[in-house]
Amino acid sequence: MANLYSQEPMIEMYVFETSQLIEQLETAILLSEKYSSFSIETINEIFRIMHTIKGSSGMMMFTNISTLTHALEDLFLLMREEKATHIDYGGLSDLVLESVDFIKVELEKIKNGDEVDGKSDMIITEINHLLKAARGDNASLPLEKKGAANEAPKFYISQSKKPSPEYKNTFKAVIYFEDDCEMENFRAYTVINNLKDITEAYEYFPPDIIDNDDTIQVIKEEGFTILLKSDKSYQEIHTFLSQTVFLKELELTELLEEDKSFQSLKRTPGTEGIEKPEDLRGNIATERELRDGNNHQSIISVSVGKLDKLMDLVGEMVIAEAMVTQNPDLKGLTLENFYKSAGQLKKITSELQDMVMSIRMLPLHNTFHKMHRIVRDMSKKLGKEVELEINGEATEVDKNIIEYISDPLMHLVRNAIDHGIETPKERLEKGKSGVGTLKLQAKNAGSDVIITLADDGKGLDKDKILQRAEENGLMHKPVEEMTDREIYSLIFLPGFSTKEKVTEFSGRGVGMDVVMKNVEMVGGSVAVESNLNVGTTINLKIPLTLAIIDGMNIKVGGSSYTIPITSIKESFRAKKENILTDPDGNELIMLRGQCYPILRLHQVFKVRSAVEHIAEGIVIVVTDGEKTICIFADELVGQQQVVVKTLPTYIKNLRKIKGLAGCTLLGDGSISLIVDVSGLINI
Amino acid sequence: MADAFVNEGLYDEEDSQRDKYLTFSLGNEFYGIEIKYVTEIIGLQPITEVPELPEYIKGIINLRGKIIPVMDVRLRFKKDFKAYNDRTCVIVVDIKDISIGLIIDSVSDVITIPAEEVVPPPDLNRGANRYIQGIGKVGNDVKLLLDCNKLIADDELELLDNI
What we know:
- The complex is a heterodimer of chains A (683) and B (163).
- Chain A is an alpha+beta fold and 683 residues long.
- In chain A, 42% of the residues lie in helices and 21% in strands.
- Chain A has five domains: 2-156, Up-down Bundle (Four Helix Bundle (Hemerythrin (Met), subunit A)); 169-267, Alpha-Beta Plaits (2-Layer Sandwich); 305-359, Orthogonal Bundle (Helix Hairpins); 363-543, Histidine kinase-like ATPase, C-terminal domain (Heat Shock Protein 90), CATH 3.30.565; 548-681, CATH 2.40.50.180.
- Chain A has a six-stranded mixed beta sheet. In chain A, strands 6-8-9-11-10 form a five-stranded mixed beta sheet.
- In chain A, helix 12 runs antiparallel to helix 13 (336-359).
- Chain B is globular, with a radius of gyration of 17 Å.
- The chains are: A alpha+beta (683), B alpha+beta (163).
- The A-B interface holds A 1-3, 5-6, 311-316, 319, 559-560, 604-607, 645, 647-651, 653-655, 657-660, 663, 665, 669-673 and B 1-4, 6, 46, 48-54, 57, 60-62, 64-69, 97-100, 152, 154, 159.
């Protein structure tokens, strides 16, 4: 225990790094699966990730992780070195993803300080099985692969292959054997064996012909497919393949040089490996960077604490700068050069400020794309076909908020697939397309980010919900008084689940509860809309509590306030005669035929010495999307990008202040309170 | 082993701060606050008022980018408000991860009051000395030692009064 404690920072680093790598790995696999081929870059990347995880896990003594990654590394090493890209992609992806999950679970254990005791034997056995199958024709592959991690560079040396020249022609051959020839897989193997004499660059499908007898069926039905490269002409290859015993039919086509599925063969085996094994890793890294420059940003990880600190410091600097340039001692002096330099300084500081503010913001991209995996796994297991559509993933949200919403989103996606979307059969019966659609989108709306998850599934069944709520004693109100929205909200109560059976993915009535809790923790809200048999739409409204907003600074008495620009419609100076007063003493204003109430900010916030005469102040028309009101303030100060800071915990604990969303620092170091428009409207 | 070592280190630090109090004046009385809570002492800064708060919370200030609330301790103790002057100070304390500034008349110095010189507050009728955890004797003077936790504790009764 003491040991673990003293290693804490290292463990933290390890967990952080590994989870990042795992995420990369997952993305790579899912992408490859989509195109059902592993490009050489992907293989290299996966190999590198596996290698890193193996190394660090070994160092941290998490043996189960390191052995597992070692096995995977072997597999991808084989694919890389031997161009054994004929591996069964589906099986491989499943296996790698399974391993990813395994490592994730173990990481979670490490985080919680639990014993890392997961058993990876099962997966390793499967990997070894696949490895054996992949080796197939190449059983003599060096066995010292099982050696220690540091020796890894050695393995880049491919055993027997000499640098071979680029082949000119690419062919695709599909061979059908005679119906009663038996042992199709061995026939196929013979073909491959003979092929070795004329070329070294080939792939074939099904790949595991020797170890897997099931391939017989595949070869029988779909034929035996070979992709090969050779200098020989079409005719020569055709003649060569026609010699195959028991041949029934041969389809030979010449492929274009750029054919994607055969891309891996363009790089001739072993060239770089033999020449300079020790340089290989460096080469791969640079190559990868060059090639994938667009998807891989060069990233450095910094702790959020440091960023907070940096932001505070920059804030301080801005204040210090203002103190210098507006120093009372400078009054009355003509300092041309000084002001020139001061102007320069101001420019730099404001740029710096902008930059620091943007650092904390992350696009929702990663969070959203994580859902691909969930959709894939679930639809596979549940036998449903679901397509995930993602929109607005570039919407930027503060890092903290991303952490809070990633779990709820996952639960929602699971629920949508498990409960919402029907099986293809049911869908077809209802006249929908067999493939369900799940739309995940994010957009900025005022001072909020709205994340919408819409499915076109069966929708929520009100009666069922009510019945279930009653059974579980969750009803607090007579049914007749409940609005649709209230009924739908019942599903977010703890202990509510309409699913009869608890499945692997959902049904325990825990998930939706978590959704509500997490979203509320960041001050957001969840709204459900649903139509029976048309679909369900769930809106998460997340405030930008820590995010940057464009704000309009206004002055009321001695205080500054900031209103989010997005909620402002217009501002103008009102004339006394346009103001109406209703019998309750509320002021109203007519604006282009519409009547809006006027809210005097100084009255709401009890600010002293504010402008009282309506014609001397300014009227700002604000809306929260539903209602519109007019806010009366002293004057507009100007527009500025501000970082929303929450009010101090002490004050939040004391009381929730209506109409205030937080506070922010202005350029001169003074504090401005951010107006919560929807809070004000509903006061 | 590692644990033991770490603990020892903590113990050392605690030890050097033990029995040390920052004393300050509030009207005629002298108060002491345990030094371990004190982060820093700053001059009075422009305070941004926040609506709907109890009277003794004067508002929030910007402490190098960190926004903290400030409490007028005079008002918290139901004394009369006294206009701030250039001797007025803000003691920034960190209690249970909550940073808060305490506005006081003036700070004196840091003194050591050994535990044996501290006596429990007299048992007056209810609530009268709930902010005091002890009374320290320093020579002929008496310092009232503040219980910081009580100072920031949510006082629901009081909140109700204010509504």
